[in-house]
Amino acid sequence: MTKLRLLLFGFLAVFCIVVLRLFFIQILHPDLQQDYLSTRRLDPERGKIYDRNGQPIVMNQILYKLYFEPQLIQDKEKTTLSLSKILHVEEASISSRIDVTKKWTSVANGVTKMEKDAILKLSLPGMGFDEQWSRYYPDASIAAHLAGFVGKSDDGTNVGRSGTEGFYDKDLAGLPGLIRSDLDLQGRPIFLGTQERIDPENGRDLYLTIDKSVQMLVKEKLKAGLLKFEAKEGCAIIANPNTMEIVALSCLPDYDPTTYYEFDNSVFRNAAISDVYEPGSTFKPLVMARGIEAGVIKPDTLFNEDGPVKVGDYTIRTWNNSYEGRITLIRALEKSSNVGMVFIGSKMGNDRLYQSILQYGFGEYTNIDMEGEASGFLKPRKAWYPIDYSTATFGQGLAVTPIQMITAFSAVINGGKLMKPYVVKELRGETIQKVEPIFIRQVVSKKTSDIMKKMLLGTIENGETKYLKPKGYQIGGKTGTAQIPIEGHYDATKTIASFIGFSPIKNPQFIGLVIVKEPKTSQWGSETAAPIFFDIAKELIVYYNIAPE
Amino acid sequence: MKNSYQKIIIGIFIAAIIGNITIFISSMKLSTEIHSFDQKTFVLKQENAQLEKEMADTESFLHAEEFKKNWGFVRAAQPVYIGELKYALNTKK
C-alpha cells in the first residue's frame, strides 16, 4: 500500500511540476511571437517559358532578402562596412537600417547566392536571409514585349504583367500549397501533433512558337535599321503564314524585364498588338484580292491613269504625281497607284469594300494570346463619307494594329485562309496541352491567292525601287508609307514606313512585317522598312534552308 | 489475489510509461528526420534552380557572344585617329 501511495505521490508531484511549468511558460512569460501551431503557405514554382526548340527564355532563380535583427548586432561599424563592400551599397543606407528600437528590419532584396555566401563567411551576428523566387532572363531583353514581366500586386504577391506573363498568369502561377503543423520550441514539427500538408501545384511551362535564333536576328536587324534610318520606334513580326504561328516579334525601344521598375510605363506597351497605325499602301493587295475574288476586276484589267482623281472636294494623286496612261492593275500595284486603287474601289462598290475590310478582321481583336491587344479603329458605317471609301482602298483613314495587318496579309498569300495568330504552342504541366492553329474563315479562294502572290512578286521585281535581294530567290511584298494624322490633318514631315513581304512564292514559309515610325533619313517604306526586311529575309532563307525558285 | 491485481496494475503502469516514452522518442526522431528531409529537399531545390540557371546561361546568346569575343571571332575594329584628324578624314590610302 505504501509503495502504491508513493507512486501516486510521485505522479502527483510530476503532474504539479508540469502544470507549474506550463503556468510559467504560458501565463508568466508568454512568447507571443512563438506560434506552436504554424500555418505556412507553400509557394508553387512559377512556370518557365521556352522557345519552340526548348531553349529557355524565362527561368526562375532563388535570390535572398537580407534582414537585420538590430538588437543582436554587436559591431555596427564593421557590419556596415563589410556589407557595403559586398553589396555595393552606400554605407549610409545600410547603417540607417540598424535601428535598435526594432526587432527586424529588411536591408536588401535580390541578394545573389555569391553575395549571400560572402556575407555568411563573415559570421556577423544579427542578420539572416529569406529566400525569394524571382524571374531570370538568360538572354536579357531578347523577347521583353513577348514574354512580359512579373510585377507585384497591391498585396505584394507576384503577378504577370503584359505579354505571355500577363495572358497566361493563372497557368504560370500554379496553386499554392499549405502546411499546418505543431512545432516544438526549436521549430521542429511534432509528429504526434497536427500535421497537415497540401502540396503546391507548380505553374505550367509555356513553349512558345517563337524561335529564339530568329528572334535574336530580327531584334538585331531592327535595332541596326532604326539607328541607320534615325527612326523613333520600330516593330518587326515574322510569322508562318500558313498557321499564323508568330516566330519572332520585336518592338523597339524595349526594356530589361529584370529591372522593369526602372523604365517608363510607355515602353511596356507592345506596339505590335497595342498600337494602331494607318497601313498605307500595304493595304492595297488586300483590297485588290477581294476585287479579283468578287470578279469585278482582273489583274490585266486596263484603266486609264491619266491624272489625279477628284472625290468630292478632295484630289487623290499618285505618290510621285506621275501618271502612265492606260495600264493594267498588275502595273497599278507595281507602281503603287492610289488612282488605280480608287478605280478598283469604284468597281467594287462601297458595300463590298466595307464588307471586305470586315472580312479580314479589321475593327475586331485577333485574340492573340498576349495581354494588351487593341482592336484597331474602323469608323462606324454611318460615319463613312465618299472620300473614306476612296482613301480606304489605299490604306488611309483606317487604323489597324500590326498584328491585324500581318494576319490579313497572310490570308492573301496562304490560299485565302484567315488564321488566328498565336504565340504559345504548348502548355506543359502534369499533362501536355497542345495549341493547334485556328482557322477563322476563308477570305479569298486559293486561285485568287495564287494570282496575288504573282502580283506581289511583280511589285518587288518590277517596282520603282530595286531591292538588294538574294539571287535566285523570289520574294513577294509591298511597301507602305502613311502620314501620321495629328489633330485632324496629316503631318507631312512624319510618316510610318512599312514593308510586308514573304518567301518563297509557291509555298510561303515566312511572312514578315517591318514598321519604322518617323524615320529621318527617308520617309519612304521602300527606303527604310524594306531594306530591314530584306536583311532579315536573307538570313531566314539560309536558316530555313529554302531552295531557290 | 489482491497482490496479483496490484502487480498487474503496476506492470500496466510501467509498460504504459515505457511505451509512452518510446513513442515520444520515436516521434521526436521522426520529427527531426522530417525536418532534416524538408531542409535537404529545399537545398536540393535551390541547387537545382542554380544548375538550371547555369545551363541556361551557357546556352544563351549573351554567353555565346562573350565566348566569341574572347576567341577573337569578331570583326577587327577600325582605328579612328581622333588626335590627328587628317588621318580620320583621309579615306583614300
TrEMBL record, chain A:
UniProt entry keywords in alphabetical sequence: Membrane
Pfam families assigned: PBP_dimer, Transpeptidase
Molecular functions per Gene Ontology: penicillin binding
Top-rank lineage group of the source organism: Bacteria
One GO process term, biological-process aspect: cell wall organization
Record-annotated Penicillin-binding protein transpeptidase domain positions: 234-537
Signal peptide: none
Domain Penicillin-binding protein dimerisation, residue spans: 43-190
Compartmental location: Membrane
Family annotation (InterPro entries): Beta-lactam/transpept, Beta-lactam/transpept-like, PBP_dimer, PBP_dimer_sf, PCN-bd_Tpept
GO cellular component: plasma membrane
PANTHER family from the UniProt entry: PEPTIDOGLYCAN D,D-TRANSPEPTIDASE, PEPTIDOGLYCAN D,D-TRANSPEPTIDASE FTSI
Protein name (database record): Penicillin-binding protein 2
Native organism: Candidatus Roizmanbacteria bacterium CG03_land_8_20_14_0_80_39_12
TrEMBL record, chain B:
Record's keyword terms, sorted: Membrane, Transmembrane, Transmembrane helix
Transmembrane listed as a keyword: yes
Transmembrane region(s): 6-25
Highest taxon in the source lineage: Bacteria
Protein's name in the database: Uncharacterized protein
